[in-house]
Amino acid sequence: MDVNGSSAIISGGASGLGEATARELARAGATVVIADLNEERGKAVADELGGVFARTDVSDDAQVQAAVDAAVATGKPLRVLVNSAGIGWAERTVNRNGEPHNPATYRKVIEVNLIGTFNLMRIGAAAVAKTEPVDADGQRGVCVNTASVAALEGQTGQLAYSASKGGIVGMTVPAARDLAAVGIRVNTICPGIIDTPIYGFSANADEFKAKLVAPVVFPKRMGRADEFAHLVHSLIQNDYMNAEVIRFDGGIRFQPK
Ligand SMILES: NC(=O)c1ccc[n+]([C@@H]2O[C@H](COP(=O)([O-])OP(=O)(O)OC[C@H]3O[C@@H](n4cnc5c(N)ncnc54)[C@H](O)[C@@H]3O)[C@@H](O)[C@H]2O)c1
């Protein structure tokens, strides 16, 4: 599917993987709607790309509905939903002091990463379903979700994060089956270690990143956000890609720690 002349919502579009995706899709002619909590960065990116910023907490149904309404209000048919908003969290099931995982932090990660993805997928798809098909197959749009290789081989302390991302992986096939009825494809990317602000900017961050890169097979470095954006765009462009979960990780296989 060609995104030129369509609108595209990118949750988490104010930073990292979402921002790179917004840039890629805008370059290809899409009107981008940046749905993010970060108002300052989100507005700056949207203004630069000639798009729209919608301040959105993806875990809040009404705010996601407002972001979808903003995309429809651009007058360009909404055809692309990219879920990239997400938060990390590290906490053990039972910590070193013998205390069980805090249920509030577990819930928070599930709310943002999993329910947030569910929200944009369902509310966005309901709007995409109202557009005219773009081709002889009856296609109307594409949804691309962002999980993580932690969904498949979570490390120690990744219980909440892996559960949230594993939920996104698990939704992929049934969502693609449901949304086939309205001509929407659904794919999920599982990134490995991609260089974004999620790892912070301190000297410690550099040390941390070097440790993370050690098990990458090839090329021996972190992935780049523009390489992720390229994959999102390819998945949108290639009409036969559907219901797929794709590792994007330079061959990394996570060790327990
Ligand atoms: N960078 C990596 O190595 C990596 C690896 C695997 C998975 N991921 C996933 O990719 C996605 C993007 O990560 P990133 O590295 O670009 O991180 P990032 O921190 O650079 O960007 C995440 C964006 O999401 C936004 N956000 C957070 N909570 C939100 C909420 N409740 N509602 C709306 N927006 C919210 C933030 O404001 C931020 O702009 C996340 O889901 C992350 O879990 C990243």
Automatic annotation (TrEMBL):
InterPro entries: NAD(P)-bd_dom_sf (IPR036291), Sc_DH/Rdtase_CS (IPR020904), SDR_fam (IPR002347). Pfam families: adh_short (PF00106). Keywords: Oxidoreductase. The keyword Metal-binding does not apply. PROSITE patterns: ADH_SHORT. The keyword Transcription regulation does not apply. SUPFAM superfamilies: NAD(P)-binding Rossmann-fold domains. Belongs to the short-chain dehydrogenases/reductases (SDR) family. This is SDR family oxidoreductase. It comes from Nonomuraea ferruginea. The lineage of its organism: Bacteria, Bacillati, Actinomycetota, Actinomycetes, Streptosporangiales.
